[in-house]
Amino acid sequence: MFKRTLSILLVLVLSFSLLAGCGNEASEKPEENPKAEATANTDDGNTDDEKFKVGFIYVGPIGDGGWTYSHNEGRLYLEEELGVETIYRESVPEDQKVEKVMKDMIDQGAKVIFATSFGYMDYVEKVSKEFPEVKFLHCSGYKTTENMSNYFGRIYEARYLSGIVAGMKTESNKIGYVAAYSIPEVVRGINAFTLGVQSVNPDAKVAVRWTHTWYDPAKEKEAAKALLDEGADVIAQHQDTAGPQQAAEEAGAFAVGYNTNSYEQAPKAFMTAPIWNWGPYYVEQVKAAMDGNWESHSYWGGLKDGIVKLAPITENAPEGAQEKVDEVKEKILNGELNVFGGPIKNQDGEIVVKEGEALSDSEMLSIEWFVEGVEGKIEK
User: Fold this and answer.
1) Range(s) for CATH 3.40.50.2300 in the chain?
2) Cα-Cα-Cα-Cα dihedral of 320, 324, 327, 328, to 10°?
3) Per CATH, the architecture of 155-273+311-375 is what?
């Protein structure tokens, strides 16, 4: 009897201990965090994984200090303004490989894709037809589909103004121009720059040297050196790095940059530069896509829109340059001056734009001839 009673007592004690142990384990379990759930699920039912995503495709590295850097600044501005998630790929070649890059971005959830170089155009057109639910925007081209836009800025207006500075500065009357490819975008810029030069200095010539690359700092610099050796005392460019400006500085010459304000990269040579301001356009287009109001279009904004600008004119520029630029800029803004308004002659001295007339946008977008004052040939 004693043993049975003892056994019962031991069972009761053991049972109580087990129950107490379970109670302690439950009491030590952390409480649920209601704020964490609220963060993951927003009022509209979307989760962080469903955040609106935008893709950017770059032809060069974001550290180029030029073209790609300017687009990447626009991407960062977009993130700050709208709070969207962005993804990007650098140094994507202008060939079929870009198709895979776009499809990878779509697989990651991109609803809008910006392809930021001319050579991507045909591939963007093809992929846009395969993915009608995605919005595609191609920079500097001319093709559109129902879900593909093209966009660019009238950088030629700012180039004309920079040409005024160069034309007033040169003493040798020879200005070197380092240029990437002989496509209409580049040819148009060379022509606008030259027209600006000759508006203040009819005796000056603009010598062109092609590099056949957008991004190659060494090659760009060597092209500038060759122009300097030939007598140029001012260097301009349609390239993505400050290489040409640095060559000018090393030679004791002066320079007009491109894409961004690169004063710090060649402080003794840099006078000014036509520059880009992509951010507001990116915000406008992504917001339209988010709101369901996006439509395919062709955009070509200018100085008036603020998508193109002239970098601050530095102490390296000639006396009176700021005043002259301000005067001409006002004429462009109020419509009194059209950069490609006649009379304009080509290299052979033939009138190609009559007085009182001007090139249309389609003519500018397909331009394949140089104005009088340019030394060099358009390479096919």
Assistant:
1) 51-153+278-301, 155-273+311-375
2) -170
3) 3-Layer(aba) Sandwich (3.40)
CATH fold of 51-153+278-301 reads: Rossmann fold (3.40.50)
Residue 279: other Cβ atoms inside 10 A: 20
Tens digits of residue pLDDT in 68-87: 999 999 999 999 999 999 99
Sign of CA pseudo-dihedral 196, 201, 202, 204: negative
Output 5 or 185, whichever has higher pLDDT: 185
Show Cβ contacts of residue 165 under 8 Å, excluding neighbours closer than 6 positions.
Answer: 256, 271, 272, 313, 317, 318, 321, 325
Q: pTM of the predicted model, to two decimals?
A: 0.85
Q: What does the pLDDT look like over 270-294, one tens digit per residue? A: 999 999 999 999 999 999 999 999 9
The C-alpha atoms of residue 128 and residue 137 are separated, in whole angstroms, by: 10
Please check whether residue 248 is in contact with residue 273, taking contact to mean a CB–CB distance below 8 angstroms. Answer: no
Rounded to whole angstroms, the Cα distance separating 47 from 33 reads 17
